[in-house]
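re: ur msg from earlier - yeah i can do the zinc ion complex, just paste it... oh wait u already did. ok heres what im feeding in:
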Amino acid sequence: MSEYYSTVSRSQTCERRTDEVSGRSSRGTSNVQAAPAAVSAQGNWADTNKYCFGIDVGGTTVKIGLFDEEGALLEKWEIPTRTAENGKNILPDIAQALRDKLTEKKLSREEVLAVGIAVPGPVEKDGKVHRAANLGWGEFNLSEEFSRLTGFRTVAGNDATVAVLGEMACGGGKGYRNLVLATLGTGLGGGIIIDGQALYGSRGAGAEIGHMHFNDDETEVCGCGNKGCFEQYASATGLVRIGRRVLQETDEESALRGKELTAKAIYDEVKNGDKLALKIAEEYEGYLGKGFAMIAAVVDPEVFLIGGGVSKAGEILLPGIEKQYRKYAFHANQNAEFKLATLGNDAGIYGAVRLVLDNAE
Ligand SMILES: [Zn+2]
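and the outut:
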């Protein structure tokens, strides 16, 4: 476990103690168990009448959580994502994993309230996905297809939008109703909540902040096909790209030379006061600050949550972004707060279950 996970905070409504997640039958030994939470549980696993599944489909693994009807995590595990043949096995594999879990826990299908699924790519409100490129999928209605496979009511959402719902319910966004989550990883995902409601837009692409046009002079192509997108500068990939360029531009000594350049390595050297690492970070934080100021002029959030691989750098990241943000932000947006997202890789499963519970029929 990395230091990242030690920042995870959980609350009574979001997690039960693992020693109580044993209810009706033995637990599978291969399961990834929920980390113990320092809270007292309400009730017993076996008292729960209804269950939900929260599912986060990634390019490599599918994360699955079994939740109670209030959104408390009971158990989580992963299965591989089989993306071959245009991802045709992905949904049947998940359906099988759910059936296996019900059998293992001696639960009936009627005890399952619904299933929430997060996928990487735009998802319309009715569950239609548009080209989830990492999964090989074309255009189809995911909610309908998964319902057909399992018989469960299914609600689908974009993974970053789902993650911000999870952070608002159980993570760094608790207590806020106007939030922007920026996940700084290989790409840059965005999730936006305004007045407690997630922003979807007309085609499910309402919070694609990574693809705001940022630079007319860019020559490299973004993953989306355009050139000069925000994510080309502000993702973890963007940070490493800036790092490489800064190191090439000078002969100046740096502890980063000869090392594998990663977001973490750069921020580790920022902590050590390495001059070039500081220069790289300042340029990077400048892009983030400017992008966030643009978003704030439209969204006016109370808080920006920083998640994804770069957030593993920890709190050291925040003052620099905040300083740059203040430089660019409209006066009425000056007081936005900056915080780290805290659910890490679990944000998707927590949020997926909120899709179901917050849109109960
Ligand atoms: Zn782009």
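cool cool. Residues 275-299 form the longest helix (25 residues). ping me if u need the other ligands too
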